[in-house]
Amino acid sequence: MKTDGHPCRMSRHNLCAVHVRRGMLMCRAHWYMVPPELRSRINELWGACGGNILNLTPEYFEAVRAATDDVKARLELMA
Ligand SMILES: [Zn+2]
Prior knowledge:
Elements: E1 6-7, E2 19-20, H1 28-31, H2 36-48, H3 58-78
Helix pairs in contact: 2-3
The structure holds zinc ion.
Residues 8, 10, 16, 18, 26-27, 29-30 line the site of zinc ion.
């Protein structure tokens, strides 16, 4: 198995421990809690960087923050 990857974004909030492959922001469970329009925006902005994280824009990080806040709020509602 390749170890290339990183933990799910929600691990930063101690809400997940799943390891995901490179190019994926979150594990499946958490990613699908993100509203679809935000998911496609993140995919679009990620695609625009051409696979080089150094090219990621402030808009990307803003969208990612909105997505993590959204998932966090959903997880809190479920708790
Ligand atoms: Zn996760």
